[in-house]
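Budget justification aside, the reviewers requested a transparent look at the raw inputs and outputs of the sequence design task funded under Objective 1. We therefore reproduce one unedited record. The lines immediately below are the structure tokens for a 277-residue chain.
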């Protein structure tokens, strides 16, 4: 029996280009992250600048550093861009933070993108969902289906690892950028999301990032902070008194207990409590 050979990164890239050619003109949901920046680059190279438009949401749930980075990339690209102000915090279904929270967040975003696409006579909306994302619990996919948002990176079977490697080859500044999901993902399900809590997390993580912690996540359990960082940094955290610096920084945000997750950062750690069928 002939052994099945996996597609190479280059084959997947060519598949992505063929998909984009079929779309002809697209609106990309642009966050400034690894995936959407790679998609933007390939889309411009494939379709030309006049056929690519981007849109970035402005929200309390998005890290400020990511917004600044997105603005910089958009300015350099020279393409048509829209900033859309979303208001998921006015939706009680989002605020109460049940396991379907991501659906309500994406539904708000995609509704704005759909309106933007319609007003600009663009038939296809794309986001940066990649092939690796299929392994995680992501209610936002239901919202994407509702609003007919396409996932060309996923369709081309490009994994996160593929995208980082190709981004490096294309000399994109995001090739080794940490993942940065919305700030609402810092709260365990059932813990109400408020503007005050979001600001607290944003400010506290900004302080901790100055300690060069990679893939930092500050999970908020009211009076307890659970910190996730890259597993390969765990052995270093007690050197040079970094752990004491973390404690000193977080005590200022009124955390009584400050803990370090010994499993380190991993995608979807808050989903581990959800019983999958």
């Amino acid at each position: 029996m002939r052994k099945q050979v996996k597609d190479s990164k280059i084959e997947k890239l060519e598949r992505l280009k063929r998909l984009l050619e079929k779309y002809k003109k697209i609106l990309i949901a642009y966050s400034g992250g690894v995936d959407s920046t790679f998609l933007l680059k390939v889309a411009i190279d494939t379709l030309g600048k006049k056929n690519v438009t981007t849109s970035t949401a402005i929200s309390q749930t998005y890290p400020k550093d990511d917004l600044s980075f997105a603005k910089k990339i958009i300015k350099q690209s020279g393409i048509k861009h829209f900033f859309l102000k979303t208001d998921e915090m006015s939706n009680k279904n989002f605020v109460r933070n049940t396991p379907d929270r991501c659906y309500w967040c994406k539904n708000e975003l995609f509704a704005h993108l759909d309106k933007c696409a319609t007003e600009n006579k663009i038939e296809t909306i794309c986001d940066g969902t990649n092939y690796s994302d299929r392994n995680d619990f992501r209610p936002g996919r239901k919202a994407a289906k509702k609003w007919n948002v396409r996932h060309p990176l996923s369709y081309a079977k490009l994994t996160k690892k593929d995208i980082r490697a190709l981004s490096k080859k294309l000399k994109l500044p995001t090739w080794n950028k940490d993942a940065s999901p919305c700030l609402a993902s810092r709260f365990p399900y059932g813990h109400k999301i408020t503007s005050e809590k979001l600001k607290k997390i944003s400010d506290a993580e900004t302080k901790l990032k100055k300690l060069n912690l990679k893939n930092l996540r500050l999970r908020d359990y009211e009076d307890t902070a659970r910190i996730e960082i890259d597993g390969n940094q765990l052995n270093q955290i007690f050197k040079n008194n970094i752990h004491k610096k973390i404690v000193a920084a977080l005590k200022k945000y009124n955390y009584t207990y400050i803990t370090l997750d010994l499993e380190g950062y991993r995608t979807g750690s808050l989903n581990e409590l959800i019983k999958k069928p």
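The mean pLDDT is 92. The longest strand covers residues 52-58. Computational costs for records of this kind are itemized in the attached budget.
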